[in-house]
Structures are given as structure tokens and as C-alpha cells.
């Protein structure tokens, strides 16, 4: 069993302010969960920049190469056709398919990378910190392993209260939930 | 007051909604049992789809001979419907991709449903070229893979990479796949919202659909990055798909098709017809599903502006095409326009001294519906009228169908040799397939409305602070208290507030 302290806010602005002030004080925050993207939250938490765009570029480059090489192999090497004396390597007419395959490979590759990186699965054993966090609550999460003594925990809760938390609760989960750092770039 | 509220735009979320209200309103239809209205609609759509399935089955069983095609007219109703459906599929990705890049906030109210329509429309579109092949079971021949059809070894028979028809295969399948990925990824957080409100089997199903989404900071960071890049990739993709569809015609040497104006003209037409279809369905859905607070008159007006813009581009393209036919001095091109399209029996035919064109009514139906009627949207009152918008959207759907029919059939039915001139009219099988695809489209759309969140919950929440009516009113009050001037909803201009901050 893993134990987490969940501080629930009813708006995104107090959450963002709280995360910033806790970070300033050097309090260890495990994660933050919101029903929609809150701009600036990932910077406040200190998340590293995602590398998804690099993956997208590489998959796109693969698509370009695949399209050009298959078309060249087919219509120049394997079976050149004579269309009124025009060159077999007809780059202008290869452009549409090259473009489409670039987009296709970049998109599929990026989406697959996204799903894998987030450990998404149809069989996911999902344990949410709180049911309302996908609807109307904004949560800041602390790993209680970082706040072992009761004194520390009480201090944290009263600190959260002063920052405008509307509710705090302790959530036990079967699975360890990686924090924003361990969720990797 | 934090965040930016717009001083000039109408609120995009009305009814003083809170985050809780938004979840309740949009998840409501998914969580409640189907209404009698839904069941009736579903039954009718499924029956109509059944007619389509039977007609397709009959075509495959008997062959393309069941259609009204002949030696002169090899493309007609099927390709008309193909292009019509692909065009309808263009609004969704335009709204979700291009408008995301332009940061248009009104897209959040309609993007989910419009993207769903894109996917369903492309499914309907894809059916036509497939069954047009006649031997559906050989459809995989269009894909380039090493095969033994050419002889020994790798000596394979490849598809012709110089052919726009093959480009189309790649364009349509890429468009479908990327739209589907984009749409589904956007659905993950909203499926999670439904999951977290549910219990038992429903929870399990929506958990699987949401892929275990939880909404952590890292997930959202990647989500935002992914959406932006997919939008960036989809933007040229949307423009490329209908350009490539237009190449099917433009690269041939048929008078009436052999025109360089086709790609931009087709793209504008596609967006035009796509928005018309989105309006037709969303005007009904917003009332039936009680979404007036999320799909407001401001949304409808914005879409009508896009319709006016693209409709006018299409109008200019029609006139340019006409002028170029005259100005080129090419008698074949002139013949197509003068004798096959414009010459009606009442005004232009007698004026030009030309007998009535066999399809004059199709040309003039297209002109009336697509060029003349959308001009009504220059008037703000008309753009904001639901009745006018609904009637116009139907007009445009009809007009854009006729556009494709005119381009395809009037160009080929009288070719270079008068002895092979012919006339085309559809058989019941073709009508059945067309009506059937409308049934398939509606069935899928109704299922989507019942089981999926019709409005992007997370995205609407993210614009609540800047476009919700209560926040705009609050800003107006604050500014009034400070300056004594009543600026109306949204308050003073951002420049004023910036000065104040400094």
C-alpha cells in the first residue's frame, strides 16, 4: 500500500499559487492533477520539457524516407515504365504520397509514443486520487513517504489550509504512482 | 480578476456555468437512458443504412451494370457522392486543427462533434471508390507491396505512382487515420470524467476507453504538446486532401476538368459544405441535448462567417472558371460551359442562341444554392438567426452536391465525338447507396451523441474564465466601478487594463 495526501482546491488559480509557494519553500510535491490543462502548472512543478516533438520529427523523417525509397524502388529499379519518354524518377509526382506518408508516420508514431510514455492501456488498473479530479477539483498530491512523522503531516495540512485548500484526504493505492519527475521527459 | 476576458466577443458559455455544471450538463445525456426521440431517430437511421447495405450488396452481387453508367459516362453518381462526403469531412479537422493554431476559442464548443462528423463522413466517402472498383475483393491491389503479378522474384506489378487516383488512396487513408487519432486522443480526458462519475460496468468500459487517464501535470503537458503538433500536421493535411481529390480531375485532359484553379476551389468548397453539415446537425443537437449554453448564437455566427467567406471563394472560382473558358479561346472548354452547363431554356440559352443544355438545371441549382444564397450572411441579423442558418445549411448541402455532379457529369456526357454523346440518370441502386450512406452517417452520429461526450468537456472548462458570461459581466462591473463607464460584457479594452496593471 502506498499513501498519498491529496489537497483539493476548487479553482485552478489557488492551486497554481499554492504549488508555486510550496515549491519556493522546498516542500516536496509528488504531483498535481487537474480536470483540464492549467497553463504554467508544469513549469511551477519543475517538469522537464517533453521530447514528444523530437519523436514526431524522427517518425516523420522515417515516413519521408519510406515513401521515397519504395516509390523509387518500384518505378525506377524494379519496373520502370516509359510514359512518353518521361523520366522514371518523377520526383514531382512522388511529392503527394511522400507528404501523406510523412504526416501519417509522424502522427501515428507520436500518438503511440504518447500512449506508451503515459503507460496508457485499455486494461489500466486505474486508481484515481479523487473522483472529482476529472471534473471540478484541482489536486496537489504529496507522497506520505516524504512526510513520515505525524508532526510533519499536520504541518503540511495546516500549510495547505492557509493556501486555500478546501479539503484534504489521505488516499491509499495498491500501485505506486510515479511522480512528475519519474514520469520522465 | 485574473485571466484575459474579451471586451469585444460575445460570451461562448452562457448560463453562469461552474466547472461542476459543465461536467453535469455534458455527461448527462451519456448517463441517462436513451430517450424515445433517440430510439426513433436511431431506428429510422439504421433502417436507411440497411437500404444502403442492401444496395451495396446488390451492386457487388450483380456488378456495376446495376448502375446508370454507360460507355461515355463512367463516373457519375458514385464519384459525386465520394467528393461530396470527403468535402463534408473537411470541417471537423479545420475546426480542430487550423482553429487551434489560430487560438479561436469558439472551436471548443463544436470541435468534438465536428471531428466525429469528419470521421463518419470519410467512412461514407471511402465506400464509393471501393465499390466502384466492381471487384471489391481485389481492392488491396491498390497498395504497393511486393507481389507475384509481374513475374519472377521481386519483379512485381506496382501501382502507378504518377496517378492522382493512387495519391488519393494515400490522402484519404492518411486523413482518416490522423483525424481518428486526433479525435480519440482528445476524448481521453472526457472519457475519464465519465468514468469517475460512474460505477460498475459503465466505469469499467469508460476506464478502458480512457486508457487509464488520470490528468496528472505530466499527462497534460504531453497532451498539449501532442495536440499542437498534430494540429500543425493536420493543417497542411486538410488542404492537401481535397487538393489531391481535385487532381483526380485536374490532371486529366477532359474539357471542364483540366483546370489549374481546382485545388484551392475544391478546398474552399469542402470547408463550405463541411460547415453547412456541421450546422445542420448541431442546430438540431443543441436543442435536443440541451446544449444551448455551450453552442451559442456566437458559435453559429462564427461558423456562418466561415460559410460566407468560403462560399464567396467558391463563387469567385465559378466565375473565374467561366471567364477562363471564354478567354482561353479553347472551343472544347467553351462548349462545356456554354452548351453543357449554362444554356438554360429560358434566359441564357436563347440569349446565346444555344439549345438548352441537358443538365442546365443542375448548374443553376448549384449557382443559386452556393453563390447567391449564402450572400444573405452579410447581414448580422441573418447570421444570428437559427431558422435562416438551418435553411441555408440545407441549401448549401444540396448546392455542393450539385457542384460535384455538374463538374463530373456535364464534363463527360458530351465528349469530342457527337455520336457517343449520352445522358445519365441514376438507377434505384445508386440512389439506395447514396441514401444509405446518409443513414450510416446518421446512425454513427446518433451513437456518438449517446455514448460519447458531445462537447469537449476539458476544453470548454479551459475557456470558462475568459469566455464565460459571468466572468465577462464581473470584469465589466470592475471596470465600471473604476472608470464610471459602462463598457458592457467583457469590460474595457485589454490596453486599459494593461495600463492599470503597470
Walkthrough of the structure:
With 185 residues, chain A is α+β, with helices and mostly antiparallel strands. Chain A has two domains: 2-49 and 129-173, Alpha-Beta Plaits (2-Layer Sandwich); 52-117, no CATH class. In chain A, 46% of the residues lie in helices and 13% in strands. Chain A has helices at residues 12-24, 41-45, 52-78, 91-117, 150-162; strands at 2-9, 31-33, 138-143, 167-173. In chain A, helix 3 packs antiparallel against helix 4. Chain B is mostly helical. Chain B has one domain (19-144, 178-472). Helix content of chain B is 69%, strand content 0%. Chain B is built from 19 helices and no strands. Chain B has helices spanning 19-31, 36-62, 77-88, 90-101, 107-132, 164-197, 200-210, 217-250, 262-288, 297-328, 331-342, 348-352, 360-372, 380-383, 386-412, 428-451, 457-467, 469-483, 494-501. The chains are: A alpha+beta (185), B mainly alpha (502). Chains A and B meet through strand 2, helix 2, helix 3 and helix 4 of A and helix 1, helix 6, helix 7, helix 8 and helix 17 of B.
